[in-house]
Give the backbone structure.
Amino acid sequence: MMPPAFEYMAPTDVDEAIDLLNRYGDDAKILAGGQSLLPLLKSRITSIPYLISLSEVKDISYITDGKNSLKIGAMTLDADLEYSPTVRKNFPILSDALGQLADPLVRNMGTVGGNLSHGDPSNDLPSVMLALDATFKIRGKSGEREVHSRDFYMDTFVTALEHGEILTEISVPYWPAASGGAYVKFRKGTWNFSVAGVAVQLQLDNEIVKKAGIAITSMGPTALKASEAENYLKGKKLTAENVRHAAELVVAASQPSSDSYGSVEYKKEILRRISVQAIKKAQTRAEVK
Amino acid sequence: MSNLKVSITVNGERKEAEIEPRMLLVHFIREVAGLTGTHVGCDTTNCGACTVLLDGRAVKSCTVLAAQANGKKVTTIEGLSKGENKLHPVQKAFVDKHGLQCGFCTSGMIMTSFWLLNKKRKLSEEEIREAISGNLCRCTGYESIVDSIQEAERRMDESEEYIEEEIPARRGR
C-alpha cells in the first residue's frame, strides 16, 4: 500500500529540521523511525504533505551516563536501548518494556523519541518514563526547554510539543540504590496493541516504600500516572493487603473504554492483576540491589 | 511532488534511482533492484515476509521508505547464498529441517534468523521464539522453524567457513 504522495526532506541537523517545520507549518511532520507513522500513512488514516526525516541527523542517537541521569538521544533505536548494558543494570523496567515493544524487527527501526512523542496511549515507553520521573528536552525556534514527563501527555496524539518543536533528549534520573522497577504488559500476539500495561518503580528503605512511580498504558486517552497509588504506598510496607489496595488505586486511575480488546470490566481486571505482579516484581528487584 | 535521487547498496551492489519519495523499501528491492525474493505479505507491519537487513539490522521493508535507506546497505535473501546453487547454512537448515511448507514467509523468516545468529549464539528456544515473534507463518506451527534455526546454529558453530552445498537437481515432479 502506497502512502499518499509527500515531499521528503532529510536535513542533517536539528536546527535545519526546525526551520523546515516552521516553513511548512501544519503541513509538515517529523519522521523518526516511522514504525507508527508509516502504517498510518499507508492505511491513509492520515496524510502529510511534507515529511521531515531525522534519519540523516547524526548527533541525536546516543545513550550516555550523565551525572544524575541517563541521557538518551531521541533518535536512539529502541533495540539499542534494549540491549544497552547500563539500561539492563540500572533500569530493568525499561528493558522489560523495550523487550515487549511490538516485535524485534520494529524495534530495529523504531526510535525512543518517536515512541514517546507520537502520543499514542498504547505505546509502552510513555508510562515507563512517567513512572521513572523522566524529563524531556525540547528544541524549537526560540531555543530549548525542559518538560517533565507528567506534563507532556495531554490527549491522544496530543503532547506538549508545540508546532515547530522537536523532542531531542530524554533524561531519566538515577534512582537511589535500593530501587527497582518492572513493566508488565498483557497482549495477545506481538501484532496487537496491549489490553493493558503497567510500569512500577519503587524505592525501598528497610522494606518501607520511600518513593513509588506508577503509570499505565492503553488505559485511557494518554499514558496515565497513578498518583493516588504512588502516594498510598509511600511510607508503607509491601504487605499483601497493601499491594492489593495499591492495585485497586491503579485501577481507579484508569479510564478504559470498551472495544475489540475487551470490555471495561475485563480490562480493569487485567490491570488489577498485572499491577500486583508489577509491584511484586519491582519489590524483588529493589531488594536485590 | 518532486522525485528523489537515492543510492542504496543492495547485496553489495550500488543501485541508484530516481524515485517517488513515498516508495517503500520493499518496492525498491523488488522493482528497482529486481530482486523478488523479498515478499510483500500483509503490508501492515505484522507478518515480516518483507524482512531484510538494513545496515545489519533486520527490519520490515514494507515499513521503511526507500528514502530512509538512502546511503545505506541492504541485504536480501538473494545476498545470503554465495553464487547460484550455494546456500547459506541457515537456508540449508530450513531445507533439511522442513522449516517451510508454502514458503511465503520463508525469506523473511530466514533473514530474521540470519540476523539473530550473527548477533548471538547459544540461544534458548524461548529466545529463538521471541526473535521470530515478528515473523508469521501460517503453515508450520513454528516447530520445524525453531528446529531449523537450532540446526543452523549448530552448523554455523561447527565452521567459521560456512558449509556450502550444491542444491541437487530436482528430480521428478
Remarks:
- The two ends of chain A are 49 Å apart (CA to CA).
- The longest strand of chain A covers residues 196-205.
- The mean pLDDT of chain A is 96.
- Chain A has eleven helices and 14 strands.
